[in-house]
Amino acid sequence: MRPQFVVLGLMTLLVMIEGAIAEQSPLPAIQAISAFAAIKLAQTKQSKPVSPRSGQFVSAEHPTQGMARIINRDGKQILEFDGAFKTDARPDLVVALHRSSNVLAGTVPPAYPLKEGEYVVIAPLKKTSGTQIYTLPSNLKLENYKSVVVWCRRFNATFGVATLAQ
Question: At what angle do helices 26-45 and 3-23 cross, to 10 degrees?
Fold first, then answer.
């Protein structure tokens, strides 16, 4: 929960308690406690912040370099490629998260195809070099994904993989 909402909730609680003391009635105090309980409940229902995870890209079927990291920014899960990111330009390149921490070990070089059900496509690759940011879906369970992949969907070709570590 954002700090300003906590402060506002605590101020409301204090005002209600003062009202209860002035009126010598337990009702405002009970309302104040209920309001405080609602604030705490809202805090526990929010999704847990993402622990920063990052990894260096390793080339697969095409040269790929740079770093990928997942962070929490303003309550959103963000996938970020650093300024050193670079890969080849080809059609239908996408950014995906993969369940394996060793994507390339499950295939035979020089081809590194991905298997259906082992990944989720996040978005088309915005550009082949430089810093870029992707907002991840809020319902995505990041603990299920261990790697970031730059992948050519049309030819099922893995360009590069960054294994995420904390």
Answer: 170
